[in-house]
Amino acid sequence: MTSLRTLGSSDIAVSPLALGGNVFGWTADQAQSFAVLDAYAAVGGNFVDTADAYSSWAPGHEGGESETVIGNWLAARGNRSDVVVATKVGAHPQYRGLSATTIRAAAEESLKRLRTDYIDLYYTHFDDPRVPVEEIITALDQLVQDGKVRAIAASNLSAERLQASLDFSEREGLARYVALQPHYNLVSRDTYEGGLRDTAARAGLAAVPYSALASGFLTGKYRPGVPVDSARAAGAGKHLETGRGLAVLAALDKVARARGAQVATVALAWLAAQPTVVAPIASARTVEQLPALTAVAELELTADELAELTAASAS
Fold it and tell me: 291 falls in which pLDDT band (50, 70, 90)?
């Protein structure tokens, strides 16, 4: 992959594609996960995204499985200083919410599973409206002061709470969010565009969108009448029932054919070209799925191609 990009006001430089860790220890066992991580690192990838809650939704799992796999890989490869590790707090079944006590305890557990003494980027996974932003930011700042976290970020919160958090950090001279992880892709634009993106842009935050491929729908493998064997098929398949989903697929197919690119690569390239976006997140269960994702670093869409995709996604 090509040139690294800086995460907001931090000194952290990341690849143009963040590798999603939600599948590690879930639909990809440790051996498969190691293979994907090795292949990602081999092409210059350095940005791995996980959460303490992954994969607590799976039967027999308790959360932390993904962090454990990543920690084992970092230890086996001896490459901790070469990898930017992002994880999240707030949704683990045993550490729900964002009280100061929960943030501290959950961070310690994440550090153990990741087999490291610091986390590069620590997100609040979901907002906890019961907790004042002052308490959340103060707890996160303490982790930074203690050297356990390099930079802090947020996911799934309102523009208002984001702004209040930034204002408090500024006023008190505490650690400040440098990145935002919104739900954002070609078939889900209103989840970020508008007030939240405007707030992020004004504050100079780096957007690192999750669900960048809409649970696999934007890879192009979901087509009318074609069954797909995937743990995420129900969620992704619903887009086939909307005019927007079909219009986006048609536009992606057209651009992909013209550029000799994979549909997934084109979908990620559109996202990467949007204001504030630094690195979309996408996951690969197998090594074979990876090249279409990392190719986003080499595909720059023309203004006309971007406009065509944007128009299709507004239908």
Answer: very high
Asked if 42 and 241 count as a contact pair (C-beta separation under 8 A), the reply is: no
Measured between alpha carbons, how far is 140 from 176 in angstroms, rounded to an integer?
A: 9
pLDDT digits over 212-269, tens only?
A: 999 999 999 888 877 777 666 667 778 988 889 999 999 999 999 999 999 999 999 9
Element (H, E) at 6: strand 5-6
Alpha carbon distance 213, 133 (integer Å)? 31
DSSP 169: H
- Take residue 59 and report the two structure tokens written for it: 């039967």
List, in sequence order, every residue forming a beta bridge with 121; answer none if it has no partner. 86, 151
Element (H, E) at 47: strand 47-49
Alpha helices in 157-224 (DSSP H): 159-172, 195-203
Is 309:270 a contact under the CB 8 Å cutoff? yes
Task: Cite the active site residues.
Answer: 54
User: Helix or strand or coil: residue 154?
Assistant: strand
Tokens representing 193? 């565009």
Asked if residue 292 lies in contact with residue 236, where contact means CB atoms within 8 angstroms, the answer is no
Q: How far is CA 216 from the centre of its chain?
A: 14
DSSP state of 205: P
**Beta carbons of 19 and 52 less than 8 angstroms apart:** no
Q: Are 66 and 21 within 8 A, CB to CB?
A: yes
Task: Tell me how crowded residue 307 is: count the other CB atoms within 10 A of its CB.
Answer: 11
Whether the full predicted model's pTM is greater than 0.85, yes or no, is yes
